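Table S2 (continued). Query chain:
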Amino acid sequence: MCFRGGGRGLQLPACSAAAPAHCAAAERARRAGREAPPPLPISALSQNGLLQALVREVGQPAGAAEISEDLCRAQEEWEAVEEIQSGLGGTSASAAPPISFNEALQYFQTADLSECRKKVRATARRQGLAALVRFLFGPPQLQPQLQGERELALAIAQCGLDDNERVHMRILQTIYKKLTRSRLGCPRYGAHWEELGFQGADPGTDLRGTGMLGLMQMLYFVMDSQTLPLAQEIFKLSQHETQNFPFCIMSVNITRIVIQALREERLSRECNRRQQVIAVLNDLYAAAFLQLYRVWKWQHKTIVDSSFLLKELELSTKKKPKQLLKSLEAYVNRSPTADSLQQPFFSSASGGSGSQPNEEIHFTGVCDLQVELEGEARLI
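Corresponding output:
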């Protein structure tokens, strides 16, 4: 029996020791003058109990209480083949089921993030006249009962990608599968991450300043049924022949903007109203990405416009978060295709020429893309 791995030219011997019964069945069919049935996908072999049926065919009772040693060996070999076919070379990440955003969040809620919490910078407190002006005209402060959730979000933003944490790897694999619409996983390192819009073979190097929150917001984007179509449309645009951009790097930069808006208490009013913090962060992230997508698509932007557009987007996120959120709500409440034809509510006054036509913008990392809009504000 011969299998060809997905895109990697993997071939197995014609008669593998993993499935002697199957080979015997094929031989009997050939001798009877009938063509053996086509081989099933490896996933079907592991999921549909074919191996168990084949073993029973050569004499094992259907109601046996214990699985034979040969069957165990066969199952292990099939699982190893599936891992090789997915390109993971023996790791278990490909076989792991997709992880939901809520499951991932529960992990971080119970994980020991004490070291990450130590890295969170305290919000600078104004004094004197500046404090009075902020009290009278500035945004309200976050209510005390929401401070813990705010600190959790900022702690996740300080948590780096850890190869030894299974949940981290499941998050990464889920994002890959959802964006590429692939059933198989992928290696932890490799050029395939650049195709998704990271800057190199290791996505972890692009998470400076956002940590795992950068991946968590991508996970939310692709796992929520209302925003998944939008995520896939944006990813499709990022692969455009002339309007292409690095999807994941753009996503991480939007997470940076959202984190800064939270730190500056620009989202306190909405968080207080909804009595949520992380949900507001996620919705604002999706709303900001939707806004960028509309401008990029409608005004035919290219990579040379990215720095200018991100500055515009940061201003909108800080000054008009409520308007952005309403735009997202309108999007998910009707057809994404029809809604994408609407003009964005902010446009590039300078025609998107924040950079000279011949100037090349390099997405070399989220901390290298400096956005200086309000004094000495810096992202964590």
